[in-house]
């Protein structure tokens, strides 16, 4: 089967086209979905892409979390569908309470763009199963509101339950607690992260590596992992 992965476009989305392209390169079928719809079009997985939905007014992701289609996203998450929130999509997931905590303005109060090293902390999710725990990958990062926060009680639960999916390595670019770059829910089907894996899926267009400039394709594994999870569940 060919996995059909929906990418939801919100007003102000920037990277929905890049996410669709990444899905296609990974061997899946991207399906464009609209924030104002209540129809997921029978997709097998979902991506909430990066951007500045609704201009990041109120709080980044807060208005998008109330969009009509988010009712279906919440139902899909409860049913176990793989869902990935990238940057603004991660902000939507925490605002919709599908992941714990929140995201605030970077500690240095500036927008940041860099190729960011990450360490894989959880390789048991639908989006990370192609990695190994402890593996270091490089994924482009670009955000102004990427500082992860939560209460001390929530942080202890996150750490104790192994819900940190990725940590920043080398530098914490935005002041996130415990160097947290991405989280998973307990079931492992919902993952959110601030860096952009869809920008590291094709040699010649990704981060630099020791092998060659712009040859990094670590982001492709997110999408091949989800496709493998969908196919496995259908067997």
Automatic annotation (TrEMBL):
Q: Where in the cell is it found?
A: Cytoplasm
Q: In which pathway does it act?
A: Purine metabolism; IMP biosynthesis via de novo pathway; 5-amino-1-(5-phospho-D-ribosyl)imidazole from N(2)-formyl-N(1)-(5-phospho-D-ribosyl)glycinamide: step 1/2
Quaternary assembly: Part of the FGAM synthase complex composed of 1 PurL, 1 PurQ and 2 PurS subunits.
User: PROSITE patterns recorded for this chain?
Assistant: GATASE_TYPE_1
| Catalytic activity line of the entry | L-glutamine + H2O = L-glutamate + NH4(+); N(2)-formyl-N(1)-(5-phospho-beta-D-ribosyl)glycinamide + L-glutamine + ATP + H2O = 2-formamido-N(1)-(5-O-phospho-beta-D-ribosyl)acetamidine + L-glutamate + ADP + phosphate + H(+)
Q: Which UniProt keywords apply?
A: ATP-binding, Cytoplasm, Glutamine amidotransferase, Hydrolase, Ligase, Nucleotide-binding, Purine biosynthesis
Q: What is this protein called?
A: Phosphoribosylformylglycinamidine synthase subunit PurQ
Where is it predominantly found? cytoplasm
Q: What Gene3D superfamilies does the entry give?
A: 3.40.50.880
**Reported function:** Part of the phosphoribosylformylglycinamidine synthase complex involved in the purines biosynthetic pathway. Catalyzes the ATP-dependent conversion of formylglycinamide ribonucleotide (FGAR) and glutamine to yield formylglycinamidine ribonucleotide (FGAM) and glutamate. The FGAM synthase complex is composed of three subunits. PurQ produces an ammonia molecule by converting glutamine to glutamate. PurL transfers the ammonia molecule to FGAR to form FGAM in an ATP-dependent manner.
- Keyword Ligase assigned to the entry: answer is yes
E.C. code: 6.3.5.3, 3.5.1.2
Keyword ATP-binding carried by entry = yes
The residues annotated as the active site are 87, 196, 198
